[in-house]
Each structure stands twice: as C-alpha cells, then as structure tokens.
Write a structure and sequence with these properties.
binds protoporphyrin IX containing FE, 7 helices, Haem_Oase-like_multi-hlx, about 210 residues, Biliverdin-producing heme oxygenase, disordered N terminus, heme oxygenase (decyclizing) activity, Haem_Oase-like, single chain
Length: about 210
Amino acid sequence: MTQTTTDTVLTRAKRLKALTHGTHDALDNRLSSFHPFESREHYAAFLQMQYRFHRDVDALFDHPELNRLLPGLQQRRRLQQVEQDMRDLGIEIPALSVPPVFEAGKDVDIATALGWLYTEEGSNLGAAFLYKLAAKLGLDGNFGAHHLAPHPDGRAPNWHGFLEQFNAIELDANGEARTDAGAQAAFRQVDAYVETCCVLPEAEPELAS
Ligand code: HEM
C-alpha cells in the first residue's frame, strides 16, 4: 500500500503554529493577566494595541499580488472595525509618528507579508474567547467589539478558507524562511505593543487617615 505524504509533511501553517507556539503562549498569558475586559479603561488600552497592529498590516489587504494569491483578502482587513470600536467608546484615534510596518504604495516582500498575515488572521481565532468576555462590558459586534465579532460565515470556516489558500501558495526554501521570519516578527511586534499599551497608570496611593 502506498502512503501519501500529506499526513507526514507539515503544512506551512502548522509549521508556523509550532514555530510561534511559545511566543503565542507568552502573549496570551501577558494579555490575559492584563484582564482587558475588566473595565472599559482596560479595554481602551487593549484597543490601542489592536489599532497599532492592524494599522501595521492594513496596506497588505490592498496589495494586488497578495489578493491574487489569497482571493478575498481585501475583505479580511479589520482596521476599520478597530477604529469603529474606538469611536463607539469615544477613544481618540492616535496620530502615530512612526509609519506602519507595511506602507501603501511601497514594495512588499510577499513571503514576509504572508507570515504577518498568518499571525493577523490567526489572531481572529483567539478573538472568540475575547468576544465572549466583551459581552461583560456590554460590547458586541454592533457596538465596541466589531473587530472581535465572528465572520458571517463562522470563525472556523473563515480560518480554514484562509488556510487552504495560504498553504497552497508556492514558495521556495528561501521564501518559506522569510514567511517564518514574518510571522515571528508580527508576534514580536504585538508583544511590544502589549508591553507599551496594556499598562495602566499606577493607582493613586491611599492617603493615610
Ligand atoms: C488573550 C489573548 C489570546 C488568546 C486567549 C488566544 C487564544 C487562541 C486560541 C485558543 C487559539 C486556537 C484556536 C483554535 O485552534 O481553534 C489561537 C490561535 C491563534 N492565535 Fe491566539 N490568542 C490570543 C491572542 C493572540 C494574539 C494577540 C495573536 C497575534 C496577534 C494571536 C495569534 C494567533 C494565531 C496566529 C493563531 C493560529 C494558530 C494556528 O495556526 O492554528 N493570538 N489563539
């Protein structure tokens, strides 16, 4: 009996999952211990982090070659939803002095961009858990938590649709390595944003009576 290699060869996404597993866990712990849904103040800080990350990748969703490789990519962007959530909660959209990682109209290394998109699209899976917590603050897909809401086709089918396209893209060994580096860089970037955004000013010390 001949055995196909499909069971034994790691897909690109599985390889990336294994590669970023430790960073994902650390990020998950760091974010969870911040309790982003403890109050609207915490959630506002979480949105600042999300805004920065989704702004970094937003230009990729308009890229013609990436849209050819990943049909429907343009509809996957979530920056506008994050901005809507900020407006819902009366949070000013920050005017950041640093440019986003990917800038509209500039050359993009496709393999690197794929790694970033893997991280961005995957983050929508963990959002299922976060979306449930958002309800505690009275937020949902119509108000304040647009960017965490499931895709109309369902979160898992939407992710599997992405994976099918993503895993089918042909890259040489060098391209695979750049995709790995892109996914890792995206995780590092989010981690840095969590570190700077997801902190609240120290509570005023209580005055001794
Ligand atoms: C408290 C925060 C987070 C929690 C609780 C969380 C949780 C999860 C869970 C449970 C999954 C697996 C879902 C499944 O297989 O059905 C997942 C997948 C994933 N998450 Fe997170 N996540 C969090 C934050 C993030 C962030 C901030 C990012 C990156 C920006 C991220 C990137 C990913 C990626 C790329 C996957 C897909 C892994 C794969 O290839 O299957 N996550 N997350």
